[in-house]
Write a structure and sequence with these properties.
GO terms for molecular function: N-acetylmuramoyl-L-alanine amidase activity; zinc ion binding. By secondary structure, the protein is an alpha/beta fold. It is about 30% helix and about 15% strand. The chain is built from five helices and eight strands. A hairpin with a 5-residue loop joins strand 5 (about 85) and strand 6. Helix 2 (about 130-145) packs across helix 5. The mean pLDDT is about 95. It binds zinc ion. Zinc ion binds near residues 36 and 170.
Length: about 190
């Protein structure tokens, strides 16, 4: 099997990440690679603006969220929920430390890595440079953790593995429909 080179990854210090505010649980065995989209947050953000978008997502994840009636709908998390984020121009950002469980796929956080694509892919497909970075990163992780291709899944698939999962459209209909092609591209990269 070909050894996959490590892609260039923008480290936390380079996007001015906040330090985690709380203890986090260690990941157990990594069995799944879970794909997300970030919807409005990070849509059309490229270049330096993508760094700001990643920081905004971290701030959002680390704060409480209330509905119109003042009911708490999301508690604050210790850190950004995803392990990796990829902007539309293909920049890969380091999210939560890979040693720790993320907060991205309720019911599967203890054994998965969360990868978020910046943007809203309900109707549009991934951009070519974003796709290249995703396939490269997935190949690296698949090789490192011996993840079966069928375990490269969308957030919306989690509920089929664990009924405690969340009903969600994530990672968007258009991106979700690209998943089988993404799995094939990852396999091709690993076998080429
Ligand atoms: Zn998601």
């Amino acid at each position: 099997m070909k050894i996959i080179s490590k892609p260039y990854i923008i480290l936390r210090r380079d996007w001015n990440a906040r330090n985690p505010t709380d203890k986090m649980n260690y990941l157990s065995k990594i069995n799944y690679l879970v794909i997300h989209h970030t919807t409005f947050n990070g849509d059309n953000k490229i270049g330096e603006y993508a760094k700001e978008a990643v920081l905004d997502i971290q701030k959002y994840h680390m704060s409480k969220k209330y509905d119109n009636q003042g009911n708490l709908i999301k508690n604050k998390w210790a850190d950004i929920g995803y392990h990796y984020l990829i902007s539309m121009d293909g920049q890969i950002f380091q999210g939560r430390d890979i040693n720790f469980q993320g907060a991205h796929a309720y019911g599967l956080n203890d054994k998965s890595i969360g990868i978020a694509l910046l943007g809203n892919f309900s109707h549009k497909e991934l951009y070519p440079s974003q796709m290249r970075s995703l396939v490269h990163l997935l190949a690296l992780l698949k090789q490192k953790y011996s993840t079966p291709s069928t375990n490269i899944i969308g957030h919306r698939d989690v509920i089929n593995l664990n009924p405690d999962g969340t009903i969600t459209e994530c990672p968007g209909i258009a991106l979700y429909s690209q998943l089988s092609m993404i799995r094939s591209s990852v396999e091709n990269l690993l076998s080429s």
